[in-house]
Amino acid sequence: MKFLFYSFCFVLLTVNVCGQTLPKEFFDGMDLMESNPEAAKNNFKLTIAKDSLFHGSYHFLGVISLAEKKPDSAIYYFKKSISLNTENLRHTREMTYVRLFNTYAYKHDLRNAFDIAWLAYKLYPNNNVILRGLEDICLWAFYTRHGGLDISYLSTAIKDEYVVNTIPQEYLIVRKLKIKDENLHVTSQSLVVKNKASYDVLNCATASGKDTVSINFKLNWDMNKEFGGKPIPTADVIKNTNYPVYERLGAILTTNNKADLKVEMEKLRP
């Protein structure tokens, strides 16, 4: 999320981080993040050579690794950053947790994504970004196994069209899409018919407003018979202890999007 990236930059530029005087290479690296990521990476590595205990260098190496489509490297760097960032100044540790569990989610490793997100939620229960991310992981787990949603849709990349079985699946997909590391928000919606099929078209923009895009959702249900999508059974999933807890929580959230996950988790415990 680009707003997290810039928040992190602001913190590191304006706060005296644990009394540390950071090497010049760190600030050079931040200046080069968008224009020359390779040079930025080299500067962050030089920073680590001079100060191996500063968490920010690892965080940004993780961000660059994601841009290079190297999620395993990103996971390593984010974990290292979290382990070193004991102060959590201006919520920077929380930001890295969000990066970490989203990286697992984009790898379609929902078990590890849930475990990290649940840990982050327990540590920082008032962080709404962490809570929203945790809920979405549970919903992806439920919908992809029980609701006919294609797991390949869990990606930052925008596809030509998405086949969905319910309207909530549309917004779940949009929340994970990005343009230039910026999340999208819906600005308008229209229902159209193409090739005898119904499409819900969500017009979206980035937070900065610099980029816009139309996302095409093919509605995989009879619009004359089923309002809002196909009914997806949830009761059997919720009560079946053979399913992972995050799938069962996803089923609960599908029936009640205001459910308190801590309360529901206690109910599901054996």
Q: Care to describe what's here?
A:
By secondary structure, this protein is α+β, with helices and mostly antiparallel strands. The protein folds into three domains: 2-107, Tetratricopeptide repeat domain (Serine Threonine Protein Phosphatase 5, Tetratricopeptide repeat, Alpha Horseshoe); 110-147 and 232-270, no CATH class; 152-219, Roll (SH3 type barrels). Helix content is 53%, strand content 13%. The chain has twelve helices and five strands. It has helices at residues 2-14, 24-31, 37-50, 55-67, 71-84, 92-106, 110-123, 128-146, 167-174, 235-239, 245-255, 261-268, and strands at residues 162-164, 178-179, 182-194, 197-206, 212-219. A five-stranded mixed β-sheet has the order 1-5-4-3-2. A hairpin with a 2-residue loop joins strand 3 (182-194) and strand 4 (197-206). Helix 2 packs antiparallel against helix 3 (37-50). The protein is globular and about 65 Å long. It starts with a helix and ends with a helix. The mean pLDDT is 92.
Topology:
Elements: H1 2-14, H2 24-31, H3 37-50, H4 55-67, H5 71-84, H6 92-106, H7 110-123, H8 128-146, E1 162-164, H9 167-174, E2 178-179, E3 182-194, E4 197-206, E5 212-219, H10 235-239, H11 245-255, H12 261-268
Parallel strand pairs: 1-5
Antiparallel strand pairs: 2-3, 3-4, 4-5
Helix pairs in contact: 2-3, 3-4, 4-5, 5-6, 6-7, 6-8, 7-8, 8-11, 11-12
CATH class of the largest domain: Mainly Alpha
Number of helices: 12
How large, in whole angstroms, is the Cα Rg? 20 Å
Number of domains: 3
Helix content: 40-55%
State the CATH topology of the largest domain.
Answer: Serine Threonine Protein Phosphatase 5, Tetratricopeptide repeat
Question: Mind describing the biggest β-sheet?
Answer: 5 strands, mixed
The CATH H-level homologous superfamily of the largest domain: Tetratricopeptide repeat domain
- Low-pLDDT segments, ≥5 res: none
SSE succession: HHHHHHHHEHEEEEHHH
Major sheet: order of its strands?
A: 1-5-4-3-2
Count of DSSP E strands?
A: 5
Report the average pLDDT across residues. Answer: 92
How large a portion of the residues is in β-strands, by DSSP E? Answer: 5-15%
Structural class comes to: alpha+beta
